[in-house]
Amino acid sequence: SVLGFFFSFRSSAKLVAPLGCLVSRQKHTLPDLPYDYAALEPHINAEIMQLHHSKHHATYVNNLNVVEEKYKEALAKGDVTTQVSLQPALKFNGGGHINHTIFWTNLSPNGGGEPKGELMEAIKRDFGSFANFKEKLTAASVGVQGSGWGWLGYNKEQGRLQIAACANQDPLQGTTGLIPLLGIDVWEHAYYLQYKNVRPDYLKAIWNVINWENVSSRYATCKK
Question: What is the pTM of this model?
Fold first, then answer.
């Protein structure tokens, strides 16, 4: 999987089999959405969802497969210079694939409201209240300069929730070490067709489709 491959250059020797033959690797594929393109309306319209998924995410997947192929060749040749030069493209396209794969599951036509159980307790513990958390994550997402993401992540070492913002397609875990629970895409392609340049309106709307069951399940998994 891309998560395993991503930034795991230290273990890249495992990809090389004896006699220079390379172990066959599954190509990355675009995941299906768990709902229809129009399912998140009126908060995110069908046209945005279709373009975002079938064009933007698909492009990251295709480019990631191309980059990994080139990386594999460079690895087989022991060409470290090329391996290093491919890392920005691996980070960008690998991150784009990781981020969007999480994002689609973080949204649901039955979403919105507030989380329950352990996640809600942790939010109250680490942010004071759900309202305070919502305000902080919204502010971090609005404040991203240019393109990027706002995240709720889990800091495993400290055992607490943390908010972070990442530029471009930098993946949360690969760049900050935080385990991603909830990502908000603030690239213009995620909202421009509907909200024009008013990012705060999009951020206000997206809370109506947040899939708290998915976020809670991610939290439960990373606490194990």
Answer: 0.87
